[in-house]
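Co-fold these.
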Amino acid sequence: MGWIPSTVSGRCYCIILFFLAGAPWIFLWTNQPFLLDLLCRGLILAIAATSLNLIMGYGGMVSLGHAAFIGIGAYCVGIPAYYDIYNGWVHLGLTVVVSAIFALLTGLVSLRTKGVYFIMITLAFSQMIYFTFVSLEEYGGDDGLVIYLRSEFPDFLTMQGPVALYYWIFSTLLLTLFLVHRLVHAHFGRVIVGAKHNEQRMQLLGFDTYRYRLTCYVISGVICGLAGMLLGNFTGFISPEMMNWIRSGELIFMVVMGGSGFLFGPLIGTGAFVFLEQYLPEFMKFLNPSWLEYWHLPFGLLLVLLVLVGKGGIHGMLSKLDSKAQQSSK
Amino acid sequence: MTRPLLHISGLCKSFGGIVATDHIDLEIRPGFIHAIIGPNGAGKTTLIAQLSGTLIPDAGQIKFNGHNITSLSAPNRVKLGLARSFQITSVLLPMTVLENVMLAIQGTDGHSYRFWTPIHKDHEMLDRGMTYLQMVGLEDRARYLAAEVSHGEQRQLEIAMTLALKPRLLLLDEPMAGMGLEESARMIRFLAGLREQTTILLIEHDMDAVFSLADTLSVLVNGRVIATDTVKNIRANPEVQRAYLGDDHA
Amino acid sequence: MDWGLLLTQLMNGLQFGLLLFLLASGLTLIFGIMDFINLSHGSFYMIGAYFCGSIVARGESFFIAVLFALVGMFVVGALVEWIVARRLYRADHLDQVLATFGLILIFDAIVHIIWGPAGMAIPLPEFLDGQVSLGTLELPTYRLVIISGGLLVAGILSVLVTRSRLGMIIRAGASNQTMVEALGVNIHKLFLIVFAIGATMSGFAGMLIAPITEASIGMGNDIIIIAFVVVIVGGIGSVKGAFYASILIGLIDTLGRSYLDDLMKLFMSLDHAETAAPALSAMLIYILMAIVLAFKPQGLFPPAGIRP
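Predicted complex below.
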């Protein structure tokens, strides 16, 4: 993907990024703070989905427990805040260290397995941490914790106020996208991508694929942890529910919906997810006021259809436009 | 006499009740092309898998260049200079031909924990990749996806990748499989040219290829080596003719 | 030590284990034979409970309700296989996870539409609602019903799998699908039957538990994860493995929750034990799974010749 997009999909992504860069001003100007909130949530989930894309889309490691890292990041803000520690550097440091350790320990075990076993063992580990937080009465157990103040970064950038928080989120997303882009095209990423397609061949080219995958898993876990840290700050309320396996399933959905293994796939997929989650209920209500609560039905149908007919996700459809444009120009 | 580069002694492997490798002893000297022939199911593939480290033998020892590598992992064997090619083409289809070779270079080039510089800006590595492609005559296919080139070209790429590992010993698992006559002849000429650079253990069905390339020959039947000798002597060996050559050259 | 309490907890563990087995045995067969990860297997558990509940609500006896609900579950299972599942057998695991995740949402929404958001209590007939005296011990009659129901199905299934022709084909299918096809078995029909039986057993588990917990939306979404742990620990495709793993996990989970704090008080302070024990007991089965996979990556009873 070049920096001056020459394709339809490339131009679309470019426009989206420009729009996101200016979005707070548009929404404040038009007095739509709610839309800004929605966008914040969407971008945080996009960071998490991008981190999942790194291991799943590029590396072929399908994790059904990635939401655990969101929870870890969020509790790395929530628990210090519970003790009145609001220093953002502490939150940040904790998030990075705890996510990395959790990823390393669980990765050591789960990456020894393949395929279905990997899916299930990542799920099991996330359930493990989910139930741990459910049973930690001190930190609210099932009910969760309220965070009264956002992380403070004295003498640096403030996170207070919706616009400042938005730009924290947006720049983290940009950094994440840039990092993943560099990573997958660098020596390291080639090994990860190669191991997805033919692990045995990679080993017989001299790569200890287990270690490379473990490294990749840890990087992905830390990024997802950061998304959790932002989510904790954004919602001001955290609970084990954030790491329920259903959340992990939703993350997979976002990646696949947008286009697994493409840089901007998760961003687009998350956009679609947040949009559906927000407006599908309203659409159902529009059809029949009593249907409001049934929006999961069309959503589930969409998921099944996505798998049965919509290979490649939204990015896949855009790329078809690219190849059509190329053909017509020839 | 020179010290053998690869020394296999008492190698055994069985699956359930089926003995695939039955006390194999074998020595391969540096600079030689040593071929292994045998009917289907003789245990050639199992042997290669144990040499390259994807299967762990039940008993016996494999020594390579003085190191005992019997329980060494596959990637570490590659790093010691033991590389193999695959009978079923196993290049990475979604990557370009050049990227495939570059991966192989990466594999033996120290570590790949380099997270930032895009590989297509690593000019030194691009040049080295092209060198190997030139060796097998694939330089004008460099930018094509491996999935787009012909079967014969994928086989050539497979060899280029294996060579890029800078092997001291090259395990070639039926390099001529599925090739046409002309392609085969070209591959034979090419492999003959490698004689100077590396030692080769060749597993091949194509008898013409084996007889024109190999210095020494082992015959594998039911997991056992029934004879190891020069090509000339093997052709004359009555036991071998009965067990194997008889079928082909009747 | 209170031996009566221990016995009660053992019975509870056994009961939980048998319920798990009803889910996991179908799951492991579908997993092993069709190579299909069905996250929505827990939805059958929920649907079974609702079927049974709504028949009871019409004034039928509990037993009649279970009987009709079982037939209903077989039909539902067959329909789901026919409409969706069979299109996914050859898909990769990621697609299967995604599509069956979608199915969960669909089933939850359908139940919501038909029975409303509130749960549905299922009253037990009077003679099952009491207690049985075993010496000095009082046990709820219905617990014993669940245990005997679970054991009965486990027995039938084990006879079916080890003695009947269908069972032979199923066992062969779990280890080698091509061979079964070579035997001239109609593979589509086999898959349909296995899937529907799995759905029926899962539904049966839901019917058994509903009088205790009541039927509710999403009730299958937590237990299905534990059932997956059972399948992995037991070895994918192995009914025997699923049985032992279910009982093991049922007992560990139940006993862990009631005795871990006592155990931990032996070597740490009371306060610490009381905070740590609930967290640790919730993790026990996952720790068990990690240990099993670390030593036996294919579970305790891997079927012979299963794809690695």
